[in-house]
Amino acid sequence: MATAISSLVSIALVLLFSFVFATSADNHENFIQCLTSHSMNATSISQVIYTPNNSSYTSVLEFSLQNPRFQTPDTPKPQVIITPLYESHIQVAIKCGRHHGLQIRIRSGGHDYEGLSYVSHVPFFILDLINIRSISVDVENRTAWVQSGATLGELYYRIAEKSKTLAFPAGICPTVGVGGYFSGGGYGMLHRKFGLAADNVIDARIIDVNGRILDRESMGEDLFWAIRGGSGGSFGVVIAWKINLVQVPSIVTVFRVPRTLEQNATMLVHRWQYIADKIDNNLLISVIFNTVNSSEGNRTVQATFRTLFLGRTDGLLSLIQKNFPELGLVKADCIEMSWIESTLFVSGFPNGSSLDVLLDRTPSSRPAFKGKSDYVKEPISEIGLEGLWRSFFEEEGAGGRLIFFPYGGKMNEIPESETPFPHRAGNIFHISYAVTILEEGVEASNRYIDWIRRLYSYMAPYVSKSPREAYANYRDLDLGQNNDEGKTSYAQASVWGVKYFKNNFNRLVQVKTMVDPGNYFRHEQSIPPVSPWWKKRGN
User: Fold this and answer.
1) One of 50, 474, 500, 520 is an active-site residue; which one?
2) Which of 6, 52, 172, 523 shows a CA-CA span of 20 to 30 A to 381?
3) Is 474 a catalytic site residue?
4) C-alpha closest to that of 246 among 163, 340, 166
5) Residue 474 has pLDDT above 60, yes or no
6) Statement: residue 5 has pLDDT above 70
7) pTM value?
């Protein structure tokens, strides 16, 4: 009898999976047919559709896949990839995706920490914006229009083509896509002087769930507010951003000064916390931590003080001597260069590298990693720092890398509710945690991820509380996630939502409910809509 029941169960499972596979295949075929039949130019859209049967499918999928943690045979793959050439391609993709029940994942640079721009556990397609990347710089009005598929490196390069004294306050990694970066706020080496990237967005073009192309005026101030820091993938497909460019000197000064534990790094980092957010707004000093071999050949922790100063060497030396003499900075440590050259320096390119590297969308290395984030409001004691260093001496600590990134300056002047990004006054610095997974295999990967989780737990007494804040662009599913099927309660989503957005989460939910009540644009940490009270009661 048991054998008969077991056989029936096996048959039922086979039939079930056959049905699911057939349904999925039907969705895929019907979706493609929908794309071609509803496109104004069936030939043009057919050239940017890739399915697993296409010889270019894998290369297109992996070109902008920036975290190999999500490049395993078991990682879910899209049924279709679309690399639109025109806005009309995006409009029809949204229409057909909704009609045939395929979830959309929107990718500009592919740097999502949890792979959410190219991975889903329900049937999905990728809208890859790699071809939507034009940049138009208006020097006279100090503005630019940049499409979401462009990278930060491409944006910097095109600005520098037109002006030696205009810049834009954005991030350090040149291969990051503009679309995702702006959507989460976007900090960088200029934010103490000029604020975030999102603070300098003055208009945008978005395609909403109904396929309408809206600008700031037609989308309204609520939606325009939400897309400037409310994180991507929740409200529609932002296709372009109008930004204010900022004035910088023709010559800036940089330095990179490393200090190991044996060179009093603990004392220096402790002292840095008291000046990092208070020093002149033209100066930003971040600190990068990793392990190196000491002069005796033993592993030690190195703190590298990385700096951009909007001025000449003499001015920088004067500021450091006045505020941070313990660093022991000398003139030989300082390098004068143009702002555009400084973007290469802070990214880690060798001095003298060609500016053309900014146009290369492929990172110099692409290791598997796990990341997390924190905000610090009170200086960490030397004892606390020494406990942090001990984590680096664990086996997996060899793959660890932390960055302390200072706030203050302009960041203190902008109210928490001005954009969805709430981490403003009161924060001394932001912590970026990352661990590179240095060994192959699932078991090894889990060990490195456990290491960063232990480190994160250790840091709890030293960072923000109620909520323990986090940066939305450093996506971390450990904080909580939505349900796959798209029905997520406000209470469930607020577990992670208030960490990223604090009180702004409430307004984001209201905007989402207004512009995408059916929750088509969704992922594991997208903003959920709320149902009207009568629907909740089932009336």
Assistant:
1) 474
2) 172
3) yes
4) 166
5) yes
6) no
7) 0.93
